[in-house]
Amino acid sequence: MTAGALDGLVVADFSRVLAGPYATMMLADMGAHVVKIERPGVGDDTRAWAPPRDEAGTATYFTAVNRNKSSVVLDLADPSGREEALRIVAGADIVVENFRAGTMERLGLGYERLSTVRPGLVYCAITGFGRAGGAELPGYDLLAQAMGGLMSITGPDPDTPTKVGVALVDVLTGMHALAGVLAAIRHRDRTGEGQRVDVDLLSTLLSSLVNQGSAYLGAGVVPTASGNAHPSIAPYELFDTADRPLALAVGTDRQFAALCDVLGLCESAGDDRFRTNADRVAHRGELAPLLQAALRTNTAEHWFGVLTARGIPAGPVNDVAEAIAFADRIGNEPVVEVGAARVRQVANPISLSHTPVRYRSAPPELGEHTAVELPASSEQLRL
């Protein structure tokens, strides 16, 4: 079997719910051995977040982010549980935790303590609002979306703040945690020096606001929700067709001219109100009805084929089932079957040509590996 990019790395995973488990699953997919440390009798909160459940009765929320891991049950409130946790950390390269700030320190498992137990340790702490003034705030994705500004720019209008349909800030934070951990491992491999990595939901969200955050900082413009329209590009939104909505993402004047040609609106391409993107943004209220009338004459699938053939970015609004089917149809292989039970999951999106990701085991039962001997860490293997 081809070696994984992170073979030999051992991760002590104290995280639960989404941001931390997403990051550690990515590490596991790339070959790291991840030991998931869970509470007795309860485990990760998401084991109980159902419905829905899969055919084996496991909450699908839990299965989404916990493949390729071992599950060890430890009571961290008990001295013997903490001693066992220290033993696991002593053989680990990486620790990931997303307790409320200060919790690991109160348990005697904070970075300062663990870095003496395990020199060279990379310790990643994920919090909701950082370790300073926001340390006591609970780190829930919904709160981050609300307090971090995302809901204010999402939804049909400024009076209807709306959350994204998935815990997107958790996922983004997990990806930032992954990047930070890999950067710290690269530094450790060069110098032998471990370090602490801190990421939080609020900072991740503010960074992920990109152009919307820059609009405020660079131009003093406080963005607001504008439905599916784009604040800086037009036409870049949804339009009704004969059967379902179609997304149009026309980003250049050339694309707009081609769109007008396909829709039989050649006069509009030369109209001073629509000549440039800035003109179209200023007059989107006049442009949209013209496009809408033309697009309602046929189906979304028809326009997808016709417009794509002319190099005009467009596509129907798919539900999740249709999205997975579309990805499969174009050869992206979006679904994998993991473990002996062949648990169906969305594939890891990262493709590595020499060290491909691997799907070694399905999400574990609670405590399934409590008595299993851990592998040696990468540093121990080098000794």
Automatic annotation (TrEMBL):
UniProt entry tagged with the keyword Transferase: yes
Record key words, sorted: Transferase
Range of residues in the leader sequence: none
GO terms for MF: CoA-transferase activity
Superkingdom of this protein's organism: Bacteria
Protein's name according to its UniProt entry: Transferase
Lineage: Bacteria, Bacillati, Actinomycetota, Actinomycetes, Mycobacteriales
